[in-house]
Specification:
This protein is α/β, with parallel strands linked by helices and about 475 residues long. It has 12 helices and 27 strands.
């Protein structure tokens, strides 16, 4: 508490951190046993909603994008949302254009907000001032995420890092949304201005736009909190799922870190636990205020414990614990919370270079309202991309691989790459293609490659020229 107060952190954030800290020191593991939950039965699918969209609700609605991530996992040192996605537009370009388009379509000045972190604030605000000055000038565009201290893994005292004191702090996860809304005074200001509904989503999920049909459903069902879910597939079985807590029949989120080893088979059973959280959330602001008041100024969220080192670039540095919370976990705090199933088009986050390559390719097109959607020519099924995780973990490696342009993937079913390759606009992958390069220099693949398994290890490479030294002597009669 003393360290956070000295740093000037809001009381709401301090209270929220104390709640997770007390959970840690009490020995709470955060585990949700399979025996304590029941699978969620059928949910309403948004495609089946028949209620007439109510445009009057837009004047009471605020759209908030979570924009605190640096994308360090992809090798970025700036806001991940400033990464170019398609046709020269970044995530924030498309988000800003979506907001402007939505306002024109509905004839209403739908309020737009960002939750930035200290790491993304300057870059993001400069971007908006330069490219979208009207949005930048709006009052209350930005709300800042808090920060919390890393803890010594043994003593749970605040960690220290003399070489770089900034390493002593970490982001508290997107569960900090609620503490930030309270501590910044933004929740009180929004309620005072007559706002009732908030739609929250991640800035790297461009499919998560304000859908008037879903908003109307949320309002007419009088739900206090509503989560957009998708049906789990084999690719989603290791991610978290929605469940019903037996003790109070509240909806809860169980993440992989909350699952005991012996419950892993049930956790991964997608026929039993069928729905996962897209992190697209609808929140009744007045109900949020009631919960905050009930708990004395914060929302008690389940603890997520991460084991790290105080200096993320030095594995030998002090071992620490980082405590986080997830905003979707708040569903268990709301009486009358609900969930709906949405199509996969509303869940298209970019977490890896596989996702980025796919989004940049012709497998996706941008709609008139600036949403990226799967190209109809794909037949409703996105290509499966599996780039070498060691070679293409960082965006820079993907940029280098596609410096001659992005290959065509619209007719591709699966692309697997092992090793370093280069491709360009002339490269067209069709069907199922696998490419292997075991050499230490990049190899270029071009033209149409259809249903093939290629080993290009022995092909001419793109590395530095390797001249051979040849001994020579003077040629008779040759002038110098």
């Amino acid at each position: 508490r003393a360290k956070m107060e000295k740093e000037g952190i809001a009381q709401s954030a301090i209270s929220a951190f104390e709640s997770t800290f007390n959970s840690l020191v009490s020995g709470n593991t955060g585990i949700i046993p399979e025996s304590s939950i029941t699978p969620v039965p059928e949910l309403v699918h948004t495609d089946s909603i028949t209620s007439e969209p109510n445009t009057a609700l837009l004047s009471e609605t605020v759209v908030l994008k979570l924009n605190g991530g640096l994308g360090t996992g992809m090798g970025l040192d700036k806001a991940k949302s400033l990464l170019e996605v398609k046709n020269g537009d970044t995530f924030l370009d498309l988000t800003a254009k979506q907001v402007v388009c939505m306002r024109k379509e509905f004839g209403q000045n739908v309020k737009f907000m960002l939750m930035n972190s200290f790491s993304t604030s300057d870059d993001t605000l400069n971007f908006f001032k330069t490219k979208y000055p009207d949005l930048a000038a709006e009052e209350g565009l930005e709300m800042l995420q808090n920060k919390v201290p890393k803890l010594d893994a043994t003593t749970f005292e605040p960690a220290t890092c003399e070489s770089d004191p900034s390493n002593e702090w970490c982001p508290p996860g997107h569960g900090d949304l609620y503490a930030a809304l309270i501590g910044s005074g933004r929740l009180a200001a929004l309620l005072e201005a007559g706002y009732k509904y908030m739609f929250v989503s991640n800035s790297d999920n461009l499919g998560a736009t304000l859908d008037l049909k879903i908003l109307t459903h949320f309002a007419t069902t009088d739900a206090s909190f509503m989560m957009e879910c998708c049906e789990r597939t084999e690719n989603d079985k290791k991610g978290g799922h929605l469940a019903i807590r037996n003790s109070d029949k509240h909806l809860v989120l169980r993440e992989s870190a909350m699952c005991a080893d012996e419950d892993e088979p049930a956790f991964q059973d997608i026929t039993k636990h069928r729905f996962f959280n897209t992190n697209n959330l609808w929140i009744r602001l007045d109900k949020l205020k009631e919960i905050v008041d009930k708990f004395g100024g914060f929302i008690p969220l389940p603890m997520i414990k991460n084991n790290k080192t105080v200096d993320p670039k030095d594995d030998s540095s002090q071992k620490v614990v980082q405590l986080e919370t997830a905003m979707g976990a708040a569903i268990e705090c709301f009486d009358g919370a609900s969930a709906v199933i949405v199509p996969r088009t509303r869940f298209a986050p970019v977490k890896k270079c596989n996702d980025l390559l796919l989004l940049r390719s012709d497998a996706y097109v941008i709609t008139d309202d600036f949403r990226p959607v799967l190209n109809p020519a794909c037949g409703g099924v996105a290509p499966v991309i599996a780039l070498d995780s060691k070679k293409y973990k960082l965006v820079g490696a993907l940029e280098e691989a596609t410096s001659e342009g992005v290959p065509s993937l619209v007719n591709c079913k699966r692309l697997t790459v092992k090793g370093t390759i280069r491709m360009g606009r002339s490269t067209r992958f069709v069907g199922c293609v696998s490419i292997k390069n075991t050499s230490d220099e990049a190899k270029y693949v071009s033209g149409k490659i259809e249903d093939a398994e290629l080993d290009v290890s022995g092909e001419v490479g793109l590395g530095a020229l390797k001249p051979t030294v040849v001994k020579s002597g003077p040629i008779s009669g040759q002038k110098p």
